[in-house]
Amino acid sequence: MSSVESRLRAVPPHALPATAGALLSEGFGAREVTLLLADYGLTVLQPVTLLPHTGEPVSAHDGPAGTAFTSQKPVVEITADPATELVHLPITVRGDRLGVLSVRLPAGSSDTATVLRLGEFATALGHEVATAGRDTDLYLQARRTRRLTLAAEMQWQLLPGRGCARDEYTIGAHLEPAYAIGGDNFDWSTEADHLTVTVTDGMGQGIDASLLTGLTVSALRNARRAGIGLADQAALADQAVYAQHGGKVYASTLLLRFDLDTGAVRAVDAGSPQLYRLRGTAIERIELTAQFPLGMFEETPYEEQTFRVEPGDRLVAISSGVHGTSSAAGDLFGEHGLRQILGATRQTPPHETARAVVAGLIEHTGSKDLATDAAVLCLDWAGRGAGTAEGTAGAV
C-alpha cells in the first residue's frame, strides 16, 4: 500500500480519480472506478469527472452506494452483468465522511481479503483528496448540486469538517440550509489529553452573519491556540467582537472542553445553543448558567461550569435555529420534537443523528428551505476506561 500511496501523492491534484482507476486496474483487475463525493446537503453522492461535466448523482441514503456511505461499511452489489460486480467502499478521513469509491470487479473476485485491501485503498485516496482540496477547486465543485451563496462559501471554508473520530469519541455534525448557511458554525480541536468543541450562532443572516461568525470563530481559535483556559477564550473572543461591532451584533456560543482521561467537561454557555445528554434511555437537557453572548457588552467576564460524561453517553448540541424554529402554523419545534428524534435515532451513528434532527426540523416547517440557520453536533463518548468513573466536584 505504501507504493500506492506514493503514486497517489505524486500526481497532480486533479488527476487522483484517473490515477486511482489505473492503480485499481493494475492491482485488482478493476474495469471501472468511480469516485463519488457527498454534496453539502448530504442528499446525494456526485461522481467526480472533468468539470463542468458530471455523471448522474445517486442517493446518499438509499441504494448500494448510499448504504455504504450511511453504514460506513463496504457493500458488494450484484449487477445485471453476470461477468462483473460492484464494490462500494466508504471514503472517510479521521471520522469525516467524504463519499464512496465504487469499483467494478470481475464476478467472484470480491472476497473478504480483497474488500479489506480495497477499503485501505479508499482510505488512502480519501486522505489525498482531502489534501488536494487545498490546491484545486475540483473536489469542492464536485460536491455542489447548485451554487453556494457567498455567505455559505465563507462558512464551509471555516468549518473543520463534518465529523471527527478517535477511540475516545465520535463526532458527527450537520448544517442547513447547506447552500445558503450564514451564521451557524461548529468547531473542534483534539489534543493528546483533551477535546475542545464549540457551537456558534452569529446574529443576523447572510454575509453580515458570516462575517460575524468568522470573526468569532477565529478569535476563539486564536485564544485556544494561545493555551489559555476556556473562560478566558470566551472573554478574549468577546472583546474582539465588541471592539469590531460595539455591541450592535453578537454571537451566541457554547464552549466545551473534554478531559479524555476522566470524562470531566468544562463548559461556558455564552448564549443560545442548547445541550442534551442521552444516557441509556434517558434524555436530559444539561442546564448551564446562561451568560451573555460574545460581543454584547464590553469586557464581559465568563465563568466555567463542569459536568461529566460516561462511556456510552451521547451529547447533542443545537443552535437556536433548531430549538427556536416554528412551523407555518406557529408550532415550535422545540424540545418535544427534538426528544422524539433523539430517542428514535439512539442507535444510529452521530452523523446520521445530526442529519435526522435537521431533516425533522425541515419536515416540521413544511419547507425544504429553512428560513434560519440550523446547526446540530452529535458526540458519542467512549472515554478511556476506568478513569471515567471518578467523580467531579461541581457536576451539573
UniProtKB/TrEMBL annotation:
<dbReference type="InterPro" id="IPR052016">
    <property type="entry name" value="Bact_Sigma-Reg"/>
</dbReference>
<feature type="domain" description="PPM-type phosphatase">
    <location>
        <begin position="166"/>
        <end position="381"/>
    </location>
</feature>
<dbReference type="Pfam" id="PF07228">
    <property type="entry name" value="SpoIIE"/>
</dbReference>
<dbReference type="InterPro" id="IPR036457">
    <property type="entry name" value="PPM-type-like_dom_sf"/>
</dbReference>
<dbReference type="InterPro" id="IPR001932">
    <property type="entry name" value="PPM-type_phosphatase-like_dom"/>
</dbReference>
<keyword id="KW-0378">Hydrolase</keyword>
<protein>
    <submittedName>
        <fullName>Stage II sporulation protein E (SpoIIE)</fullName>
    </submittedName>
</protein>
<dbReference type="GO" id="GO:0016791">
    <property type="term" value="F:phosphatase activity"/>
</dbReference>
